[in-house]
Amino acid sequence: MRNKILSVAGPVLLACLAAQHVAADGLVFRPIDYEGSLNERSQEAIIVFHKGDKAGEARQDLILKISVQGDVDQFGWVVPLPSAPETGKEDAKLFEELHKYVQARLVAGGAKHEGEKSLNTAAEAAPTAAKDVEVISREVVGSFDVSIVKENRAGSLNQWLTDNQYQPVPGGDEVIEWYREKGYVFACMRVNDAALSKNRAVDLHPLRFSFKTGGRDGMFFPMRLTGLQDEHFDINLYVFYDKWVNDRLSPYGFVHRDFRLRWRDYDSRECIANAGKLWSTPKTDPYLRGYAHLIPTVTKMFEKLHLGKRYYLTNLYARGVKPSEVLAWKDDLWMFPYYTNRNFVPYDAREGGVAALGYQ
Fold first, then answer.
1. Would residue 356 count as lying in a domain?
2. What is the pLDDT of residue 162?
3. Which residues span the domain enclosing 330?
4. Which of 76, 108, 216, 252 has the largest CB neighbor count within 10 A?
5. For residue 226, what pLDDT is reported?
């Protein structure tokens, strides 16, 4: 079989190949006996974040969608995460609908976003010593055979991937070790029915990872692994949180990581101030009802996962990101709430916090 492994690190991939390409969230890897290329052509993510009252209580959903091109029947994808996640299949229409929603808002006069006030049965894995790589869980989610593993000894994850017929990540030991020392787990996905083509990119159904971030107020998107690729890449993120996300208000805003704001929801005169929007029932929300016809799949997702919860959408992006610069980052991308006190240090950015490395 022709297998490859794709790694995303931005949210998140980690991979094992000889000739590799990575996008905003990881690397694409070819199987041991495959001489061609496997490329991740684009990467987008949806983040739904719930802040905690104290450290360790914050949770988020991270929904990843990738587009891959390569002459293979199977490939793999590895994603580093702060804690063991629950995994689910989501609909690719989520991204199409959110794109249409943002474009409709911008066409309708969205300049306000800058100034308004608001606050099958899985195959058995080849054996690797349990003490070296711990397999926490394994399940089939749509097209993906998902194994959640934890590396307990330096260098053992690459060996585990090799034992399972994937090439190790050239030059990746240091980054993998960095995640291991932080206590992260790795979601290792084998894709069995992608029907890829060497002539065109193929979109795969999104995967949702629901997990604890380990912190209180930091929204997580893994990126450092992408520093192993050669080519520049773009990132598009849709972030849902019950407040605004800090862009430039303080040194902890996402603009300082070379991201830019495309759109964010605001409070109209009909809205409850600082209360968010009812994305699970948009026809009942004065701010969303005129756009509800554009987002039926998004509505169903929120009905399923977060019925009755309120959120503001923030759409941010980065283009032409240089891998070498990302590799030099001290941590992954962490985003924070829009604290109106410019001198306030986010909890997770403080000494001992899960995001503190990026601000030392």
1. no
2. 80
3. 5-118+126-348
4. 76
5. 72
